Input
Amino acid sequence: MPNIKSSKKAVKVIAKKTEENHELKARVKNLIKSCEKAIANGNVEEANKVFKDFQKNIDKALQKGLIKENKVDREKQRLNTKIKNMK
Output
């Protein structure tokens, strides 16, 4: 445990940011699963709605540096292709 006041604060800030980053990555993973489930059920409207939300969150994760750009592009392309093939 740090003794200096600024170091104590830094520990708290880092813990908070780590938790926020973890939540964002988990949200992205859950949205991928939700979109896959909607595609499997053949629900085009639900898949499009979830995909739009997924894009917003994965772009935010990319902007924060939590996910690499190539992975973001790959995941978007895979889901978008699956949705287009449903129609």
Observations:
- The chain has three helices and no strands.
- The radius of gyration is 17 Å.
- The chain has a mean pLDDT of 95.
